[in-house]
Amino acid sequence: MADANVTITARPNGPLRVEGPIRLIDVDGTEINLEGKPAVSLCRCGASTKKPFCDGTHSKIGFQAAEAAVAAEQRAAEQK
Ligand code: FES
């Protein structure tokens, strides 16, 4: 069951901000030390050099989250 104290917020064209007491486990099953970090930003653009964390690269590469891209395509189609 999900912990009701965890909040995940999608930043506009950016990372997923995860707030709350969480455990973060990498692909090898190793727990990433989040001691002293009440919140983390997880990369969703795939370009961070500090995965799984966001390092700000999303803004340099012009990352557009799926929702924004779909909305932009819909606007463009409606203008035709
Ligand atoms: S979301 Fe920020 S570097 Fe990927």
Textual characterization of the structure:
With 80 residues, this protein is an alpha+beta fold. It has one domain (7-79): CDGSH iron-sulfur domain, mitoNEET-type (Ribosomal Protein L9, domain 1, 3-Layer(aba) Sandwich), CATH 3.40.5.90. Helix content is 24%, strand content 20%. The strands form two sheets. The chain has a three-stranded antiparallel beta sheet, with no helix packed on it. A hairpin with a 5-residue loop joins strand 1 (7-10) and strand 2 (16-19). The longest helix has 14 residues, at 66-79. It binds FE2/S2 (inorganic) cluster. FE2/S2 (inorganic) cluster (FES) is lined by residues 14-15, 43-45, 47-48, 54-58.
Q: What's a concise summary of this model?
A:
Helix content is 24%, strand content 20%. The chain has 80 residues and is α+β, with helices and mostly antiparallel strands.
